[in-house]
Amino acid sequence: MDNTNPKKALVNTEIGLFLRGLIIGKVLTLIVIGGLLWWLLKPNLLSRSSVNSSNQSSNTVSSTASTFQTVADVPTASFNYGGSTAWASIRQLVDSQIQSDRPELQLRYVDPVNGSPGSSSGIRMLLDGQLDFAQSSRPLTDEEQAMARERGFTLEQRQVGMDGIAVVVNPSLNVSGLTVEQLQKIYLGQITNWNQVGGPNLAITPFSQQPKDADTVIFSNSDLKGQALSSNVQYVYSTTEAVRQLSKTPGGIYYASARSVVPQCSVKALPLGRTSGQLIPPYRQPMVSPEQCPRQRNQLNTQAIKNGSYPIIANLFVIIKQNKGREHQIGDAYAKLLLTDQGQKAIAQAGFVAVR
User: What pLDDT, on a 0 to 100 scale, did the predictor assign at position 16?
Assistant: First the structure.
């Protein structure tokens, strides 16, 4: 009887077990290495996936966003427009983009022959047939609407943006702020010294554009609308002139588009409020001091303007002549261009508050 078979069988069994263990060990090693590699590469994969998803989302948004190119019925011609000086940055930034994207449309800004440029003079020029549409930083008056009807058409005001009306003084003046009522009383001659509003014993010198040419209004209250300004008011041609005068007049005060005067280095914007306990600055806090300017400049408090907490808002309107003619067509097209996604983004870049 052969006794070697059991030994061979035992050896074969041990070899089989060894090989099986070796294979299982290699498989486990590969699983561990694979898991480790997946764990290390997971952030990159997720990031890549996120980027792809973001790109797809971005492409979707850009393909659905309205642009200057998507506006239909833009007339091919040269048109005259004018009005509010507060719109200067829109004319520089937004209108230049419009004409670059729509070269068939040519816009020419026209200054008034008599008086200073502004909302009032622009609307008057539109009524007189000197402009095809106007830019305004105040609403139409009843008198302007009546004049339009007398001439056989109506005027439409279409809002495209928002601004605030800021009050600026000489940087050396130490006063915490004003209420809207106090501001109005200063221009009506009922408050004549800064000590009446918590400031120093110093006579107030109010500056303003002529009411007939004014860019903005502070007498929106129906009880005060139409009242004559005080004889103490000194009239200026433009905001540029007013800022220059304020820088050398310790008791001076002026009101204008917040976008125009808040970033200026030579004047100081005052907080305004509906009550003395709620004074809101037209600039983002903290205020940039004159010594820091022009390295830094005060920025418009767009949040306060947008949520209505700032007390004097100036809405930006395109004034359209409703006469079923070429003026109506261009005014309507221009307003539509500004209300596209591209136009609203450009208005915000120009320093104003978009309405869409």
Answer: 52
Mean pLDDT of the chain: 85
Q: What is the pLDDT of residues 229-250, one digit of tens each?
A: 899 999 998 899 999 999 999 9
- Greater confidence (308 vs 55) lies with 308
User: CA dist 287 to 138, 162, 194, 269, 301, Å?
Assistant: 27, 22, 22, 9, 11
The CA distance from 7 to 15, in Å, is 12
DSSP single-letter state for residue 287: P
Taking residue 2's Cβ as centre, other Cβ atoms within 10 Å add up to 6
Radius of gyration of the CA atoms of the chain, in A: 34
Q: How far apart are CA 34 and CA 31, in angstroms?
A: 5
In this structure, the number of other CB atoms found within 10 A of the CB of residue 212 comes to 11
State the DSSP code for 310: S
Instruction: Report the alpha-carbon distance of residue 76 to residue 8 in Å, rounded.
Output: 102
Closest CA to 117 of 92, 93, 145, 81: 81
Residues, the chain: 356
Q: Find out whether 170 and 249 touch, Cβ atoms under 8 Å.
A: yes
d(CA 310, CA 297): 20
**Cα dist from 132 to 38, 69, 123, 137, 281, whole Å:** 66, 22, 10, 17, 37
Residue 108 forms beta bridges with which residues? Answer: 80
Q: Quick one: average pLDDT of 28-49?
A: 48
Cα dihedral 274/280/283/286 (nearest 10)? 160
Alpha-carbon 80 to chain mean position: 25
pTM of the model: 0.76
User: Measured between alpha carbons, how far is 183 from 163 in angstroms, rounded to an integer?
Assistant: 18
Give 174: exposed, middle or buried? Use CB within 10 Å, 0-12, 13-18, 19+.
exposed
* Farthest CA pair distance, the chain: 140
| Amino acid occupying residue 141 | T
Q: Is the Cα dihedral 342, 345, 351, 356 positive or negative?
A: positive
Question: Alpha carbon 84 to chain centroid distance?
Answer: 16
Distance CA 95, CA 342 (A): 12
190-214 pLDDT tens trace: 999 999 999 999 999 999 988 777 7
